[in-house]
Amino acid sequence: xxxxxxxxxxxxxxxxxxxxxxxxxxxxxxxxxxxxxxxxxxxxxxxxxxxxxxxxxxxxxxxxxxxxxxxxxxxxxxxxxxxxxxxxxxxxxxxxxxxxxxxxxxxxxxxxxxxxxxxxxxxxxxxxxxxxxxxxxxxxxxxxxxxxxxxxxxxxxxxxxxxxxxxxxxxxxxxxxxxxxxxxxxxxxxxxxxxxxxxxxxxxxxxxxxxxxxxxxxxxxxxxxxxxxxxxxxxxxxxxxxxxxxxxxxxxxxxxxxxxxxxxxxxxxxxxxxxxxxxxxxxxxxxxxxxxxxxxxxxxxxxxxxxxxxxxxxxxxxxxxxxxxxxxxxxxxxxxxxxxxxxxxxxxxxxxxxxxxxxxxxxxxxxxxxxxxxxxxxxxxxxxxxxxxxxxxxxxxxxxxxxxxxxxxxxxxxxxxxxxxxxxxxxxxxxxxxxxxxxxxxxxxxxxxxxxxxxxxxxxxxxxxxxxxxxxxxxxxxxxxxxxxxxxxxxxxxxxxxxxxxxxxxxxxxxxxxxxxxxxxxxxxxxxxxxxxxxxxxxxxxxxxxxxxxxxxxxxxxxxxxxxxxxxxxxxxxxxxxxxxxxxxxxxxxxxxxxxxxxxxxxxxxxxxxxxxxxxxxxxxxxxxxxxxxxxxxxxxxxxxxxxxxxxxxxxxxxxxxxxxxxxxxxxxxxxxxxxxxxxxxxxxxxxxxxxxxxxxxxxxxxxxxxxxxxxxxxxx
Length: 717
Description:
Elements: H1 3-10, H2 15-28, H3 88-91, H4 97-113, H5 122-150, H6 154-157, H7 160-173, H8 177-209, E1 216-220, E2 223-227, E3 237-240, E4 250-254, E5 257-260, H9 262-265, E6 271-273, E7 278-279, E8 284-285, E9 290-294, H10 302-315, H11 319-348, H12 354-368, H13 371-389, E10 393-395, H14 398-404, E11 409-412, E12 419-430, H15 436-447, H16 453-462, E13 470-475, E14 479-484, E15 487-492, H17 494-499, E16 513-518, E17 521-532, H18 536-545, E18 549-553, H19 558-568, E19 572-574, H20 579-590, E20 595-599, H21 605-610, E21 613-617, H22 623-628, E22 631-633, H23 639-674, H24 680-699
Parallel strand pairs: 11-18, 11-20, 18-19, 20-21, 21-22
Antiparallel strand pairs: 1-2, 1-3, 3-9, 4-7, 4-9, 5-6, 5-8, 10-22, 12-17, 13-14, 14-15, 15-16, 16-17
C-alpha cells in the first residue's frame, strides 16, 4: 500500500469509508504487492464493483504507487475482486459461477482430447481446441497482451502471464492442442483453488473488519435517535439492546448485561458489565440492555486501533518476502533466456531437430515459473498473522515473525505483566495479646476513608465503616491517622508508629507490610502482595523449555522483586530500575544476543522500542506501549507469549518447506525437461501443482485455530 493511501486512511474520514479502505486492502491487494503496479486480470466472471473511497474512486482496482520500488517480475498472487458487499462465492475465494463453468467446459474438452475415439477430423479438431484454448486462457492472454501493449520496460514484460501465454501458444503452433489447453486449464484451476485455500487466511483477518457496529441509538430529550457510530460524541449516552454491538467505547451508566469481547481480546468467555463498567466499541451485548456514556468517538475506539494495527501488519514485509521479490525480478528473465538457449543451441550443435528442442524449451518455461515461491511465501506470513489475530495477538508484520525466531532471551516487566497489578491481603498477623478480630476491626476503621491504593485493597478484603464520625488524615509516605468515637487508629509504617510512641516487636521489613495500632496498643500487621497471574509460572517454564533465557526487570524494590523471580524460576532479575535503566539492564543480561521484552505500561515503552521484539501485553492498556511494540497481546495473559512463539516457529517451518520443496521439484523437472524425459504434463505439475500444494501447506497455519480453541497454557500445579 503506497504512502498516499496510508495517509488518506489515517485522516479523520467517516468510519464506513475507513473500514472500506482497510477491507479493500485485504481483499483486492495482492498478498505481497507483487503486481508490478497493475491490477490483476479478473477471471471470466469478474465484474467491476464501484465503491467510493475517501481517497479513490477507481473501479475494481487497487491503487498502487507506480513509482514504488517493489516492482517484481512475476505477477503471481492470490486475490479477489473487491466488492463492498462480497458475494458468498467471492467470500469463499472460489470465484464466480462463470469461472467454474468455463473450467468445467474446458475439462470436458480436455477429457475428450485424451481419447482418440472422440477426436474430430484434424482441421475441425484443431479449430475446436483453439477456440476452447482461447476461452479458458483469455485472462492470461489479455494480461500478456497488456504487458506487450504498455511496454514499460523489460521487467514489466517478463511476468507469469507472458510466460504462460508464450509456452501454451507455441505448443498450439506445434500441433499439441490438447497440451496447450491443459496448460491454460490447469493454470486457471490452480488459480481458483489457490484463492479458495487462501480465503481462509484472509477470512481470519477480515473477520476483524466485520465487528464495526452500524447503528447507535442516541438518547436525547427522553427519546431515541438512530445515527451512524461516528455521529456519537464524547459525553453522549447511547442505548444498546440485547444482541447489538456497542457502538463506541464508554462507561455503563445503567443496566446489566454480559458482553462478548472476543472481537477485541480473542477470549470467548463473556464478561459482566454493570453501572461503572468500561465497555468497548465493536463488542457484543448479549442478554441485557445498557445505557453507555461515550468516552470518545468511534475513530478513537479500541476496535479502530486494532483495525489500524492489522492493516499495518500486512503491509510490513519480512526479509524473506523482500528477498523473494528481488529473486523473482532476476529469475524470470533468466528463465526466458534459458528457454531460448535450450531451443537455439542444441540444434546448432546437431543434437536433434529444432522442433524437438522447441518443445523442450516450452517445458523449461513451464517448469521454471516461480509461482509457488511468489505465492506461498507471503501467504505463509499472512497466514501466520491471521492465525495470531484469531488468538487475540496482533503482529505488526512478517518481519516480526522472523525476529521472534532469532531471539535467545525474553525480558518481563513485573507489575501488570507477570502479576495482576492489584494488591490483596495475603497475611493477617495479630500481635501478642491481640485477637484476629481486633486486628481486622482496627484496620477497617483506620483505612475506611483513605484513598491510598493499599487502603482500597484492605477495604476490598475487610470492608469499611460509614463515613459518619470518622476523621482521617493522610500522612504521605508514612500511612494514615484516623479518629473514631474518641479513639485513635493508626495504619502505616514503623516510622508512623514510632512518631506516636508505640514500641514494636522485632520483625522483618517487607514490601506491602502495613502496621496497625489502636490508641497506645500495637495490634499487629497486614501483608499486602501483588498476586502472580495464574498462567505466569507455566508460561515462563515453557519459554525456558524452548531454550530461551527469562529475565525480570522491574522498578519495584529488591524485596518485592526477589520473591516473584524466585517463584517463577527466572534466570536473572534486576530491581529498582528507572525506565532508562531497564534498557541498559536488558542489554547487559542479553550479552549481545537478540532479545524480546514483554511489558504493559507507559514506563515500558523505551524497552519495547529498543528490544529486538517488543511485546505489549494487555492491548486495552497504554497507547504508548502499543505504539512502541512490535506485537500486541489483547489479553492480560503471559501464556499468549507462548502462542506467539508457536506461530512464529510454525511460520518459519512452513516457509522453509515451501521454498525448499518448490526449488527441489523445479530443479528435478527442469533437468528432466532438458533431457526430454518430461513433457508439458509434468511441467504443469511442477508449476501449478507445486504452487497449489505450497498454498495448501501455508493454509495449515489456521487449521483448528479459533478464539474459542486457541492454546492456553494451563497453570502449573
